[in-house]
Amino acid sequence: MAFTQEQLSRTRRVVAVAIAAIAVGLVAFLVLGRVGIQGALSEREASSEATHSVDDIDATFEPMVRALEGRHEEDPTDPAALLELANAYFDWGTYARSHATSDGDRDHAVELFKTAVGHYDTYLASHASKSATVDRAICLFYAGDTQAAIAALEAFVAQDASFAPAWANLGMFRESLDDIDGASDAYRRAIDTAGDDDAYGVRDYAQSRLDALG
User: Fold this and answer.
1) Mean of the per-residue pLDDT values for the chain?
2) CA–CA separation, 100 and 47 (whole Å)
């Protein structure tokens, strides 16, 4: 069964992605940096779509991704097509991961995230983007390379400490490795940089994690 357009549109309506990320069962939020493309589906919500298998997800995303790859091949200098391609692999990986029921499914999702990272790398080589930098780090984390994800965001915030989603995700990444002090510091920085408008909705999440960490 393929996803309907309404179901697919939900992949970009939410600012935060809820994940059951940690072996001890922590349910955390990966705060996406995407601006204007409406975020991503929470894994908790995705998991409720029980009628969809990974095969269904692949059947939906493959033609979308192939079309984007065709656009990119026609004009490799078009940055929008490249970024859309990276984001599409990110979303595909998110859906596949949330519906994985076997090691093969999980490995497939990891490969999708790795492919997304490759496209983000190409894009970021020529274009500065806070959102893409954070999304790339999230893909690294989903692909199982937590240390690389942490290093990427630590390098980012060392250059630009003003982007709240970077701090919120860095806190979650650190927390996944039981670095409580480091996670708490990052969550506090997320709250501080969120500002009064809290455009990315990170403050409540960061505060909830601080409260949980004591």
Assistant:
1) 80
2) 9
